[in-house]
Each structure stands twice: as structure tokens, then as C-alpha cells.
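INFO batch 0412 | record 1 of 1 | parsing
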Amino acid sequence: MKIGSQLQFTIPDHCPENCEFAEEKKQFSMTSACFRCPIINCTLFEGPPDENGKSEPMYLINPEDFRDDWAKEWEEFFKGGPIPEMRFEITEK
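INFO prediction complete | emitting C-alpha cells
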């Protein structure tokens, strides 16, 4: 799967069998790495049904909208790199 503003980062299409977060996926919570993983967030799935019972495919996050800095960290992780930190920038008004 390609993610990032220019779809320039490559990650697996499915969760790798040897992913170190496999146990977390079973508990799927907002604090788990799986909750932030682009494999989960950028995969097309069937959306909720409308008033007529029809549903449209949708993403939680469009692949091209996944932050480049985070996409790079995930790409490196899936190549055997460190666990993504995915830091938020805090700015003052």
C-alpha cells in the first residue's frame, strides 16, 4: 500500500504475521499501536449503511492524507526499524 502526500511511502497491505503489535491488535484500544497504524487507518472498508441500507466504501484516513513524517516512520518500522514515535507538534497561539 502507498501512503503519504505523494503516495511515496510503502507499507504492507495487511498486518504482517510477525508484527510485534499482534497481541495489541487483540485488545484494540485507542492506546494501541494498531489504532495509529496506517494498515488499519488507510485500508478501504465498507462504510456504514445510509437510510436506504446502502453503504459506500471508505477510509478512516485517505492514504494521501496520512502525515508524511508518520508515514516515513511506519515504512521504516515495517522494514525492521524502530517503533514509530509519531509525535504531535504543540504550537502556541
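INFO post-check: Residues 2-78 form one domain.
INFO record closed
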